[in-house]
Amino acid sequence: ISSEYHSFRQGKSGSFRAIVKYNQASLEHSFGHYEEAMKTADSANTYSQRSSAHILQAEMSFNMLDFDKCLQEVRKASQLQPVTLYPDQILTRIYPITNQIDKAEAIITRLEHNSDHKWLSSFSTSLDDYFAHVYSLAAEMYEVKSHIAFAEYDNPINAILHKYLYRLRSFIYRIKYAN
Q1: pTM given for the model
Q2: Which of 26, 28, 111, 136 is the least buried, fewest Cβ under 10 Å from its Cβ?
Q3: 25 and 53 in contact (C-beta within 8 Å)?
């Protein structure tokens, strides 16, 4: 029996401890203990650098409107295992707020057409849940685009047409999300 198995069984594995701390941070976050959750997620990263703790920190930073910290955590998560598409999904929420909606649209298109879903099993996520989330993000993004159409187009007729086009796209993605 390998030494890794023994260290795992005794709770001494860095990866094992990182996962435990990540789960603890996730629970703290779900109960609204945000400061403790951030500290615990930091602690998870001291045991083992994994994308999941950085993704959780990015989500919490986004919720606290700390977009700079959120972007830092997304960048860190993008470079670590396990590789997931969650960092990209977070970016699709940040970019419209930071006036980079075209980047969000490009990411959503890529996420929608992505065919590598091996990472889903690592996060106990189904393909249906993944696409529901992507469609929800797309609906939100097109809703934002509908609100800024007048700033995007000088011609009022073009602005009105695009406003309703974006609303229609948002509606279509909401239907996809519901199904």
Answers
A1: 0.74
A2: 136
A3: yes
- Check: CB of residue 158 under 8 Å from CB of residue 131: no
CA distance 116 to 96: 26
Task: List pLDDT tens digits, range 1-60.
Answer: 344 444 455 555 778 888 889 999 999 999 999 899 999 999 998 888 888 889 999 999
Q: Which residue has the tokens 């990015």?
A: 58
Distance of alpha carbon 132 from alpha carbon 135, whole angstroms = 5
E-assigned strands of the chain?
A: none
73's torsion region: left (phi>0), alpha (psi -120 to 50) or beta?
alpha
Tokens standing for residue 141: 């993004």
Tell me how far apart the alpha carbons of residues 148 and 170 are, in angstroms, rounded to a whole number: 14
Write down the mean pLDDT value for the chain: 86
* Structural tokens at position 107: 């990411």
End-to-end CA distance of the chain: 48
Q: How far is CA 179 from the centre of its chain?
A: 21
Helix 51-63 / helix 86-97 crossing angle, nearest 10 deg: 20
Per-residue CA distances from 27 to 21, 30, 43, 166 (Å): 10, 5, 14, 37
Copy the structure tokens of residue 96.
């419209």
